[in-house]
Amino acid sequence: MNVIGRCVFASNFNSLQSDNSDTPLLYYSKKLFDINLTSPAIMLLLSFPNLCYLYQRITKRAVMQQDVDEFFIKTLTEVMEQRLKDPEAKNNYNDAVQLLLNAMEETEETETPKATVSQLSESDEKRTDKRKTLTKMEILAQLVLFLVAGYETTATTLHFIIYVLAQYPDIQDKLRDEVKEIFGDCGKEEIEFEDLSKLIYMNAVIDETLRIFPPATRLVRLCQKETEIQGIKFAKDSSFTAPIYAIHHNPEIYENPEEFIPERFLPDEISARHPMAFLPFGAGPRSCLGMRFAEYEIRVTLIWLIKSFKFLSADEKLPWPVELGMGGGLLKSKHELKCKIVKL
Ligand code: HEM
C-alpha cells in the first residue's frame, strides 16, 4: 500500500505505522476494496453500465461508495493543484500524478494556455474531438485504477509466496542461498536494478506461485471484427473468456499441476512451452500495465524479507492444494494463510 501510495498518489499511506482511522488515505483505499460482487448496486453496475452512467448524471451521485468517490476526488484534486502551481514539479517528481499532468500539459501547451485543475474539463462531453488532452476525471480515474489494479494483486501474490515458502523449507533455503550469493552474507544495502535480473531461481518461485494462484482467474475480450481461429468462428461484438486458472492447472501443459515446482520456470523450460501457457498478467495490447512494476516490487520486497526472516509453517496445518475462492474479483484462499516468522 505504501509503494502504490508513493508511486501513484505521491502520498504517504503510513500503512505500517497507523491503524485505519489514523490516515484517511488508508481508510478509503481499504474501503475501495470492500466490494460485495453480489450486492444489487454492483450487479446493476455490471449488467447495465449505461443505466449507472445515466443515474450518476441525473443525481450527480455515485452508484456506490459515494464517500470513497468524494474523498479521492478531493484529495487528488489538491495534489494536482499543488503540482500545477509548482514551476519545478516537472523536474522534482516522477510519480504517476506528475507523468499524467505532463502528458496533459504537453498537449495543452501546443493548443491552449497552461491550465489549472479547476479549468480542466470535468468530463468527456466538454472535450472537443480534436483535442487529445486528458480530463481531470480521466487523470483521477487512472490514478484510482492503479490503486485498484495494483495493490491487492501484488499483496495477494506476496502473501501466497510467503505461505508457500513456509510449506517448502528446501525451496526457501535455495532461494535464500541465491539472494546471499548476489548480495553477500553481510548484506549489500542497496539493490541495483541489474541485480534483479540475476535472480533466476527467485523469478521461478514467483512465476510458479502466479501459475498456481493467478490473482485474476480469467481474461475477457470483445471481438471487434469477425474472426476465425482454428476453425472456430467469432462473430463481431461477441465476448469471450480466456480461462487463466484452467490453463495454468491443465495437466497436459503442466505435469502434476497441483505440485509446487519452481523449476518449471527456469529459462529452458519456459522456452519449451507455448507463450500463452502462462498468463498471470494477460496478453496482447491490453495486458497488465503494471506488470514490470509488480515484478520488481515483488522481487525487491522478497529480497528484504528472505534476507531478514525465516518462514515456518504454522501449527495449524491446512491441506495442500490450498482451498481457493474469490474475493473482490480476485483469487483468494478460503482459509487464512498463516506462518511463523523468525528473525535471522
Ligand atoms: C501480481 C500483480 C499483478 C497481476 C497478477 C496483474 C494482473 C492483471 C491482469 C490479468 C490484467 C488484465 C490483462 C488482460 O486483459 O490481458 C491486468 C490489467 C491491468 N493491470 Fe495489472 N496485475 C498486477 C499488478 C498491477 C500493478 C502493480 C498495476 C499498476 C500499478 C497494474 C495495473 C493494471 C492496469 C492499469 C490494467 C488494465 C490495462 C488495460 O486495460 O489496458 N497491475 N492486470
Automatic annotation (TrEMBL):
<dbReference type="InterPro" id="IPR017972">
    <property type="entry name" value="Cyt_P450_CS"/>
</dbReference>
<dbReference type="InterPro" id="IPR036396">
    <property type="entry name" value="Cyt_P450_sf"/>
</dbReference>
<dbReference type="GO" id="GO:0005506">
    <property type="term" value="F:iron ion binding"/>
</dbReference>
<dbReference type="GO" id="GO:0020037">
    <property type="term" value="F:heme binding"/>
</dbReference>
<keyword id="KW-0479">Metal-binding</keyword>
<feature type="binding site" description="axial binding residue">
    <location>
        <position position="288"/>
    </location>
    <ligand>
        <name>heme</name>
    </ligand>
</feature>
<feature type="transmembrane region" description="Helical">
    <location>
        <begin position="35"/>
        <end position="55"/>
    </location>
</feature>
<dbReference type="GO" id="GO:0004497">
    <property type="term" value="F:monooxygenase activity"/>
</dbReference>
<protein>
    <submittedName>
        <fullName>Cytochrome P450</fullName>
    </submittedName>
</protein>
<keyword id="KW-0472">Membrane</keyword>
<dbReference type="Pfam" id="PF00067">
    <property type="entry name" value="p450"/>
</dbReference>
<dbReference type="InterPro" id="IPR001128">
    <property type="entry name" value="Cyt_P450"/>
</dbReference>
<dbReference type="InterPro" id="IPR002401">
    <property type="entry name" value="Cyt_P450_E_grp-I"/>
</dbReference>
<keyword id="KW-0560">Oxidoreductase</keyword>
<keyword id="KW-1133">Transmembrane helix</keyword>
<keyword id="KW-0503">Monooxygenase</keyword>
<feature type="region of interest" description="Disordered">
    <location>
        <begin position="106"/>
        <end position="129"/>
    </location>
</feature>
<keyword id="KW-0812">Transmembrane</keyword>
<dbReference type="GO" id="GO:0016705">
    <property type="term" value="F:oxidoreductase activity, acting on paired donors, with incorporation or reduction of molecular oxygen"/>
</dbReference>
<dbReference type="InterPro" id="IPR050476">
    <property type="entry name" value="Insect_CytP450_Detox"/>
</dbReference>
<keyword id="KW-0408">Iron</keyword>
<feature type="transmembrane region" description="Helical">
    <location>
        <begin position="139"/>
        <end position="166"/>
    </location>
</feature>
<comment type="similarity">
    <text>Belongs to the cytochrome P450 family.</text>
</comment>
<keyword id="KW-0349">Heme</keyword>
